[in-house]
Amino acid sequence: MIRDETELDKKIAIHHITGMATEKLRKMSEVVFQKTNTKIDIYTTVRNQGKDRERTTYGMIISEGGKTYKEVLSKVKAIVKTNSSVDAVRSIKSTKDGKLLLTIEKNQDALTNIHKALKDDKSGLKTKRLGIDRYETLHIRGLEADSTAEDIIQSIRETVGNWEEDNKLSELRPLNNDTLAATITLKSDYAETLTEQGFLRVGLVKCRLEKRLNIKRCIKCWSYEHTAEKCEGTDRSKHCFKCGGSDHSSKECTNDESCPICKEQGHKAGTMKCPEFKAALKHLNKPDWRKG
Predict the structure, then answer these.
(1) Residues 6+ apart with CB under 8 A from 270
(2) Where is the CCHC-type domain (predicted)?
(3) DSSP letters of the chain?
(4) pLDDT over 90 at 73, yes or no
(5) pLDDT, tens digit (0-9, with 9 covering 90-100), for 146-198
(6) Residues 225-244: pLDDT tens digits?
(7) Count of CB atoms within 10 A of residue 138's CB?
(8) Percent of the chain scored above 90 by pLDDT?
(9) Which of 14, 99, 184, 264 is the most buried if burial means most Cβ atoms within 10 Å?
(10) CATH: 3.40.309.10, 3.40.50.920, 3.60.10.10, 3.30.70.260. Which one for 57-130?
(11) Domain ranges for the chain
(12) Which CATH architecture has domain 135-211?
């Protein structure tokens, strides 16, 4: 640990690394060296010291099976040149693997308009959007019984400095101890600020925050130990997800629930009743001690 190694030092210097906001580095240093007399100097060449570098453009990777770059380019130009957001286009060029990269200004409406035009054209073009803000979902537990949605939104505003229209807040739901719970979806950087704090004060109480964990599952055999690219197991991609049967769909199923992953009856795959699912969830919750 860096704190142990520098225990006798009265002053140490930390050089700012690219990719981390200096404010985050400062907070991390404060946590590491709290209750010590060590003075920390942070050296940086970053001008915008309080914020991570912001993306200035959005982009789309566009391709069509069996078509050359110039053939795809011709199609894209024919569609985009009549679009109302054409003025947002910055550049069009090829990627290393011969696909088309369309770069536009950082304008969510323009990105949506052009992407929709390419999809609606039904010309066989495949698109992948780049640079869109990532969102994460957090669960809030321990809210007072009379808490309201506005109370939560106001607390988030006070903590992260903003509440954006794209954020989503679920209906408040009761728990069995006369408290409430809610679910919020917001930008990853806001979610990171909240989870680093570890709680959200709403009213008089510090409400517990939990990040929603997305367990990766092989879409072929349903295992939690690998993805489809590395799968050597049974192909269950068209099997009934309720009972695991291969001769019908879940909508048609009249059988009792059965899990082909743990081979137990009484539950279907991917639920908390499945020991394999719970083991995967526990592994996902385990801290990665290799970091830091």
Answers:
(1) 217, 222, 241, 277
(2) 240-255
(3) -HHHHTTT-SEEEEEPPTTS-HHHHHHHHHHHTTTS--EEEEE---SSTTSPPPP-EEEEEEE-TT--HHHHHHHHHHHHTTSTTGGGEEEEEE-TTS-EEEEEES-HHHHHHHHHHHHHT-SS-EEEEESPPPEEEEEEEEE-TT--HHHHHHHHHHHHS---TT-EEPPPEE-TTS-EEEEEEEEHHHHHHHHHH-EEEETTEEEEEEEPP-----TTT--SSS-GGG--S---TTS-TTT--SSS-GGG--SPPEETTTTEESS-TTSTT-HHHHHHHHHHHS--TT--
(4) yes
(5) 999 999 999 999 988 888 777 889 999 998 899 999 999 988 878 888 888 88
(6) 887 878 888 898 889 989 99
(7) 19
(8) 33
(9) 184
(10) 3.30.70.260
(11) 2-43, 57-130, 135-211, 228-285
(12) 2-Layer Sandwich (3.30)
Structure tokens at 199: 């709680």
Residue 199 bridge partners (DSSP): 208
Q: Which residue, 263, 212, 268, 218, is CA-closest to 240?
A: 268
The one-letter amino acid code at 11 reads K
How far apart, in whole angstroms, are the C-alpha atoms of residue 116 and residue 35?
55
**Encoding tokens for residue 21?**
């906001």
User: 179-212 in b/e burial notation, b at 16+ Cβ within 10 A?
Assistant: ebbbbbebbeebbebbeeeeebebeeeebebeee
Distance CA 275, CA 99 (A): 43
Cα angle: 182, vertex 186, 192; to 5 degrees: 100
